[in-house]
Design brief:
2 copies of one chain form a homodimer.
Chain A (H helix, E strand, L loop, with lengths): L4 E2 L9 H7 L9 H18 L4 E6 L2 H12 L5 E6 L2 H12 L3 E6 L8 H10 L3 E7 L1 E2 L4 E2 L2 H9 L4 E5 L18 E5 L10 E6 L1 H9 L9 H8 L10 H17 L1 H21 L14 E5 L6 H10 L3 E2 L1 E2 L8 E5 L6 H17 L8 H11 L1
Parallel strand pairs in A: 1-12, 3-4, 3-5, 5-8, 8-9
Antiparallel strand pairs in A: 2-10, 6-7, 9-10, 11-14, 13-14
Chain lengths: ~375, ~375
């Protein structure tokens, strides 16, 4: 009789429609029957990406799509600028270095957003920069970067903008075309409400030129192969048939809801979570740039952060996330995205109150839930 | 009221236990709960691979695991020998070339198995060959290569043996350790009875040395990262949680049956299919080296091969495979692996008889089914 609640920034809970699609008998991928599914999923992705560009589906995690971005855009000895303000910003740097790309870094303090002016300065100082790699929502800190402003800066340069939207896509607004995002990468297990296993990547006409000229060695993630296959409504290698079938269902749900309503729902959940955190006397980790995707809060003095997360998960079946790397034991993170709604947040806050109380942290019991309810009533 | 039958060499039909596992609510991957699943799946893979070596699970199709083999073993300007007797042998060559590896090729006539003596000769003639890439069951032709004999030849050289066992693993015998296979790659959607989306790769101690020294650029498929993660019962990037959970179920079924019984079942289905093909007056495409995984038969004169496959699929919901590339329209392929059993084969043959008759091909109706029944009665 244990009931699980998942409030982690990936994976996120699966809607029943997705679970049903995951359990269907499989069909062959090189058939008109599967092509119809792939076509609908691809069109749905364009809707979610808010783009007219091609969006490719890769059988990989989101990191595979990030690798595809780096190796298809740049060659060994090219120069990239990476905005680095958390674990996933650092991943862009690691990827570039693995492929011999020279990296300039803007090191943003963890918990802060990048100042677009700093990007402008770097681009002016080094005209060799061919691509800027940034993170929309930095999942490790909960910070959201202003992609519209970043895009406006980069649009006026020769450089190209690549955005890691793995945790943000389908949760908060990302206008791929309007904001001049040349490449956007994402994954399946966040806002898109699916199990992990799919990576997505959109490419602008400006990006296509770089893809054709990149000298980086590549095969599995070669987007020239992906383009050739997509033109025949196929994937270059065996499609992840089941996940793509479930993707179609998830995107159908999202189109029915409408992106605008989805973003409003996410914002409300984020506001409620932030209000609850404050009402419990806790401090937001990113007070000036907290995303509507995931909220990070500091572990208060005297509380064992790792134990807090473990107790919620192993004793009460409410899974939130702890801190990663340098933030291990110092923060906890509550996701409010995908198939998470109002009463999941209430449950998460209630369980947090319960375990904090058991751990000796003092606050008026019910204060967090009350603060969240006030937001949801609005 | 349409009932689907899948007799393709990947994907193969999903057992109910796998479909049930695919439909479960998701859990987080960095939890003791998921680690227990990953541990059981990894141990099950070692059983299926018949190895004591590490077996890594990659979020990719089988081709991703092939790429992992090439880039982790070899560097640009290294020399490889590729055994090429079909579409998937050619893939090894394409992969090597994409990463600047010099390739020597043994071009085996499509439909024939390689002669291990030819490998011995090549190795003697060119001591620079660091690795031999071969295919266990060449899915495009139905041919099986004698890996035991190939392993015996290579063991006495400095070269290393890498085997594409994507369609063979869990269907026919492959003694990774006993036959000295340094690297074996496989995928989820064949003998392992899962949807596509997972790649597997086993590495011998001899292979580990090359992995440490390879200068090929790599990140997502870097097996040094995979090893580091596996030692902590983790994967380097977000695990394909749902597929790995289903993998555990499939491997549990396989352990309960026992590999030996599974191989006997596959052989019987293959014998029955081959007997049926002959009884219909059709010709095997690979009479001297036909695998127990998939049977390829020549399309008889006067029959439109593509129409045959399409009619079986679109009119009668029985999906078999046609020929690929140069064999398009010239052969059809019936898979007998994974969660396919006796009466699926009877169904496939019966549907083949029906459509061949409708297309004007002459034979004694029922002859194929009778021949298959005779084998199954033994």
């Amino acid at each position: 009789m244990r009931k699980n609640y998942l409030l982690t920034p990936g994976p996120t809970p699966l809607p029943p429609q997705v679970m049903e699609a995951m359990s269907r008998p499989i069909i062959h991928h090189r058939t008109p029957q599967f092509q119809a599914i792939l076509k609908e999923a691809t069109e749905g992705l364009k809707y979610a990406f808010q783009t007219k560009n091609d969006v490719f589906i890769l059988s990989s995690s989101g990191t595979g799509a990030m690798e595809a971005a780096v190796i298809n855009l740049l060659s060994c000895q090219d120069t990239a600028l990476v905005i680095q303000g958390g674990k996933f910003g650092e991943r862009w740097t690691e990827l570039c270095k693995a492929y011999g790309v020279n990296v300039e870094v803007i090191d943003v303090e963890w918990g802060k957003a990048v100042n677009p002016v700093d990007i402008e300065k770097k681009l002016k100082a080094n005209p060799k920069i061919k691509a800027v790699f940034t993170t929309h929502c930095e999942t490790s800190t909960g910070v959201v970067n202003d992609i519209a402003a970043i895009g406006a800066v980069i649009k006026n340069s020769d450089a190209l903008l690549a955005v890691d939207a793995i945790s943000s896509l389908g949760a908060i607004d990302l206008k791929t075309d309007e904001w001049a995002c040349d490449v956007v990468v994402s994954g399946s297990q966040k806002g898109l409400m699916l199990p992990p296993g799919l990576g997505f990547i959109s490419v602008s006409p400006k990006a296509v030129k770089l893809i054709e000229n990149s000298k980086s060695p590549r095969y599995y993630f070669d987007l020239r192969k992906a383009k050739k296959a997509l033109d025949k409504m196929d994937t270059p290698f065996t499609s992840s048939i089941t996940l793509i079938t479930a993707l179609r269902e998830a995107l159908k749900m999202m189109r029915e809801d409408g992106l605008e309503n989805i973003f409003i729902r996410h914002k409300k959940m984020a506001d409620a979570t932030r209000a609850a955190i404050k009402a419990l006397g806790l401090e937001l980790f990113a007070p000036t740039a907290s995303s509507d995707v995931v909220t990070a809060a500091k572990i208060p003095a005297g509380v064992d952060g790792e134990k807090l997360v473990k107790t919620m998960r192993d004793t009460y079946d409410v899974t939130i996330a702890g801190g990663q790397e340098e933030l291990k034991g110092k923060i906890f993170r509550i996701a409010h995205m995908g198939f998470i709604e109002e009463f999941d947040i209430i449950t998460g806050i209630s369980c947090l109150e319960k375990v904090l109380t058991q751990m000796g942290y003092k606050f008026p019991l019910g204060a967090g839930v009350k603060a969240a309810e006030e937001i949801f009533l609005k």
